[in-house]
Design brief:
alpha+beta; four-stranded mixed beta sheet; 2 helices
């Protein structure tokens, strides 16, 4: 993700801007509270068995990569929806983490600080 992150025109955009930077130089904004979202994708025994074989012999674990991409996208879409529901124009300092909740699941947590543009109110 670039410094600007996902733009309002992106799927699930809700008109909310996600930014990985901690500030927006040159833009008058008011920072709000923390906004977060999480997404968890469950295991699939058939996919897991294939990935164990790939892991044993080497190679890209493309099935897991795909599930991880979908899980991150779902978490970011939820973050945008929560920011929009709180009437924020965007979220600063967006960070993605992946805590381990249980074996065989893909967990993603995204969080940042909501902000409002001063000129938009």
């Amino acid at each position: 993700m670039s410094g600007d992150g996902l733009k309002a025109g992106a799927p699930g955009g809700f008109g909310v801007r996600l930014v990985t930077a901690q500030s927006l130089p040159g833009e008058a904004i008011d920072e709000g509270e923390m906004v977060y979202a999480c997404a968890v994708s469950g295991a699939n025994i058939v996919r897991d068995m294939r990935e164990v074989i790939t892991n044993t012999f080497g190679g890209a674990m493309t099935r897991y990569e795909h599930v991880l991409d979908l899980t991150i996208e779902r978490a970011l879409t939820t973050l945008k929806a929560r920011a929009a529901a709180a009437d924020y124009d965007g979220v600063l300092g967006v960070r993605i983490s992946h805590p381990k909740i249980t074996d065989g699941a893909i967990e993603v947590v995204v969080a940042g600080t909501g902000f409002r543009r001063r000129s938009s109110r």
